[in-house]
Design brief:
The protein is 13% helix and 41% strand. It is built from 1 helix and 9 strands, in the order αβββββββββ. The termini are far apart.
Length: 142
Amino acid sequence: MDPQRIAAGLFAIAVVAVGAGSSVAAGQPVPARPSAPSTVSTAPQGDVTLHVGQEAAIQGKDLTVRYLRVVSDSRCRPNMTCIWQGEATLAFLLSEPGRGESTTAELHSGPRTGPQATSFAASRVELVSVSEDGLEATIRVG
């Protein structure tokens, strides 16, 4: 057999296996956002962990950050063997309540598919980590 054909076939199988580990491919439901998000207060430059639907009010700033949802998640699931680490993409609502300004930002758990941080209201919002199930995200606001 031709070694190139064997390698191409193995690569195709690996690509399918990586996709099978995603929450969309596994048929896992995307967590619903609670109707009234709870708010936690946090100091600038510190890490804060948010659940889906929860928001952080940054002390001393006119800024809140709400964890909206998981947009996509291609990370390797527990007890699976993967050839690529994968990444999660999360959506956040960034708001300046005093000015009535807001925007939605998508942040990535790794650098391959998009930004891990964004700027809003003279602050930097960075995604630090995501729980295995995607229900919690740790951010840093500076």
